[in-house]
Design brief:
Layout lengths: L2 H25 L5 H22 L18 E4 L6 E6 L2 E7 L11 E8 L2 E6 L8
Parallel strand pairs: 3-5
Antiparallel strand pairs: 1-2, 1-4, 2-3, 4-5
Helix pairs in contact: 1-2
Length: 132
C-alpha cells in the first residue's frame, strides 16, 4: 500500500468521530449546518495539508524510535567525561561514551552506537587518539 493510502487509513477514525460530533451538533440545532460542514471541511483539509510534514512516519521499512538514531552523527555540547550532552539536529540528548577512558571535547563529532533508555552510547569520530 502506498504511503498516502496508509496515511488516509489512519485519518479515517478521526474523520468518522468528527462527523458524528458534527451530526449531533446539527441534529440538536446547536450550530448551523453550513458552519458545521465548513468546520468539518477545514478539519479534513488540515490533515491533507499536513501529509507532507508527517509522511516520514508512514513510510514502511524506515527505522523509528531509538533505531532511527543508530549511526547518527552528533556534536558534543560539553566535554563528555564520560557523560554529557550532545546535539543531533535541533535536539539535545544525554550521552555516554561507550569506551572506558575516552574523553570527547566540546564541539567534537561522535557517532551513536546504541541507545539505552534515553541515553545515547557514543564513540568519537575522526580522531586518531581516542584519549583526547
Amino acid at each position: 500500500m502506498r504511503v498516502f493510502g496508509r496515511y488516509l487509513l489512519f485519518q479515517v477514525p478521526e474523520w468518522v468521530a468528527a462527523s458524528l460530533v458534527a451530526y449531533a451538533v446539527v441534529h440538536f440545532e446547536l450550530v448551523s449546518p453550513t458552519l458545521t460542514l465548513s468546520v468539518l471541511a477545514v478539519f479534513v483539509i488540515k490533515d491533507l495539508v499536513l501529509f507532507p510534514v508527517t509522511r516520514i512516519a508512514y513510510e514502511p521499512g524506515r527505522p523509528h524510535g531509538a533505531d532511527a538514531l543508530l549511526g547518527a552523527r552528533a556534536v558534543a555540547i560539553h566535554d563528555l567525561t564520560p557523560e554529557g550532552y550532545v546535539r543531533i539536529g535541533a535536539e539535545s540528548w544525554h550521552a555516554r561514551i561507550g569506551s572506558p577512558g575516552v574523553r570527547v571535547p566540546q564541539g567534537a563529532t561522535v557517532e551513536v552506537r546504541a541507545v539505552v533508555d534515553l541515553t545515547l552510547i557514543v564513540e568519537p569520530v575522526g580522531t586518531d587518539d581516542p584519549h583526547v
